[in-house]
Amino acid sequence: MAPLRVLCIHGYRQNGASFREKTGALRKLLKKHVELVYLTAPLSVPQEVPGKENDAAPAPAAEEDSRGWWFSDVQARSFNARQQCEESLGLDQSVAAVREAVKVQGPFDGVLGFSQGAAFVAMLCSRQEKQLEPEFRFRFAVVVAGFRSACKEHQKYYDTSLQIPSLHVFGLEDKVIPDSLSRELLPSFQDPQVLIHPGGHFVPASSAHRPTYQEFLKKFQ
Question: How far apart are CA 80 and CA 34, in angstroms?
Answer without folding.
Answer: 31
